[in-house]
Amino acid sequence: MVLMTPVKDVLRAVILSPSRRNPHSLFVHVFAQPLVIPCAHPVLSIGWRLANPQHGQIWKVDEPKFVGLLTETIRLDALPFLRLARTSAELATAAESLGKIGDHVVLQSIAFAWAHAGRTERALEFFDLSLSCSAILKRQ
After folding, report:
1. How many whole angstroms separate alpha carbon 94 and alpha carbon 97?
2. How confident is the model at residue 138 (pLDDT cuts 50, 70, 90)?
3. Distance between CA atoms of residues 101 and 24, nearest Å
4. Whose CA is closest to 63, among 8, 24, 113, 110?
5. Per-residue pLDDT at 40
């Protein structure tokens, strides 16, 4: 995991996850996580897998230009998002921009971030959305 500093209210990082199918391949996730929600592990919901221009979501570590390509992709695709999510309010705004309106974990995270930022009415809107989304998922 590569963290952006400072780490205060928001964990902002890029994490490399090994592929189970190929020991020479991995996935690269960019994510931000509000630290006001207790959790023992990284939650990747507010983020996405970084795409490899040559292989979709798979990154092959034994390719000659792996490090350069990964570095450039992080610089162009991950850092702009991570720079927008330094505080709880910034995280909530950045998470909203991802459009994951059907993901109750994301909606709940946005709600907690808004609450931590002191935006109670906005937090309640997202808590309500989260509850509605959870209820729909239970019916399916």
Report:
1. 5
2. low
3. 34
4. 24
5. 85
With H, G, I as helix, E, B as strand and everything else as coil, classify residue 85. Answer: coil
What residues are paired with 48 via a beta bridge?
30
User: What's this model's pTM, rounded to 2 decimal places?
Assistant: 0.85
Distance between CA 62 and CA 59 in Å, rounded?
9
- Angstrom distance (rounded) from CA 123 to CA 104: 14
- DSSP assignment, residue 75? I
Among candidates 19, 94, 4, 85, which has minimal Cα distance to 52? 19
Mean pLDDT of the 52-81 span: 91
Q: Where are the domains of the chain?
A: 2-139
Question: DSSP letter string over 2-69?
Answer: EE-S--SSEEEEEEEEE-SS-TTEEEEEEEEEETTS--SS---SSEEEPPBTTTBT-EETTSTTHHHH
